[in-house]
Amino acid sequence: MQLTLFPHLKLSNDELIASFSENSNWQESPIRYLCWHSHADKFAIALKDDTIRIHYNDNELVPMLKHKLQRNVTMMSWKPLSASTLAVGTQTAVLVWNIDPTSLSTRPSSGAVQVLSHAGHSPVTSIGWNPRGLDLLFTTSTLSSAIVVWNVSMKQSQVIQHVTACGGISRLLFSPDGNKVITTTPSSSFRVFETATWTNERWSKLAGRVQSSCWNPSGTLLLFALYRDPRIYSLTFSDSSSFDQPVLDGPKHASVILDLTPDDEREHESSNVISPSNIIHSICVDPTGERLAVMFGRDDPRCHLVAVYALASDPVVSVTPSGFIHGPVEAIPTFITFKPNVKKGALLTICYSNGHVGYIPMYFKAANQLNRSKILTPLKSFSMKDIDQNQSMWSKSQNNSLLVS
């Protein structure tokens, strides 16, 4: 009966990870995941050969992380307020690396890594540090209903919550202020927890499972997209900083803020018909909360593009088209993320199916510096050729991309 209700339980480990990965082609792509550090100018990049490399902006030294248990990397996360601690989710466990940024060694020893494993909790499909910098690491698995929290220094684990009757937990994502966390599942429901007491609100009877989700910087706006659904939805919450104790006050129903149904299909499909292929694979909001990037599914005709929108949340949530990003010829985007801590505007990072990493700077003034009506100025559509004419602030090569061999 469980296999009937939750078909993902029949998948192999590789198929399971690929089905719920933020990477649209996890099994074949040379790059499986990329994670920027929250305040330092460096990122970790996980490759198909199960190695992880650390790239610095001001240092040509590239440390490589390799371990016998580091197989099928699913996700990575730098510890907040730490310059050297990187958590890695894998097929069997969580590896916590300590990479000394001043070391001249390119191969950290096995003594630089901790292995954390919890019975019945694999593959580890999602990890997240406590945003306030505490030594607490939260992990979930698509085959387990438990939210496990680790005291990393003590190597002690505890199940803090169970999300039952949904087949597991596909992803856990904290709001930037740390007061809320969304847990998505392989079923047509998700929950938002308030982290002071771990009470939760549940949204169910969705048209499908949550494919991708993201918070705005204040934690007052949650955006999410559903599998095989061309629309992006929003939920708004009160600002937790205005209360003595964090509270959950989400609306009962989500609002549609963007419909990406192709024009040629819009006339033939009713709003309740789900597409046979996935439309939206990933969405992410930049650290200013004013740009939204959308990566399409591999089977969508727009899979070679990344769409960029201007996002406003005050007084009402609205999106305005800004343009499309065209990547290298015969390559499609497989992973997108914004760099934290950009002084002016935003920096979108795109990993491509041919092993290139593209950096797309977006220059705009923050909402507190301009009238809101002047911010949402549409940008032109641009391509990698246009980007190549400008000097990249991160790339060492002439074509503004990092080629991973």
Automatic annotation (TrEMBL):
Top-level taxon: Eukaryota
All copies of domain Aladin seven-bladed propeller, residue ranges: 13-363
InterPro entries referenced in this protein's UniProt entry, alphabetically: Aladin, Beta-prop_Aladin, WD40/YVTN_repeat-like_dom_sf, WD40_repeat_dom_sf, WD40_rpt
Pfam families, A to Z: Beta-prop_Aladin
Name of this protein: Aladin seven-bladed propeller domain-containing protein
Source organism (scientific name): Clavelina lepadiformis (Light-bulb sea squirt)
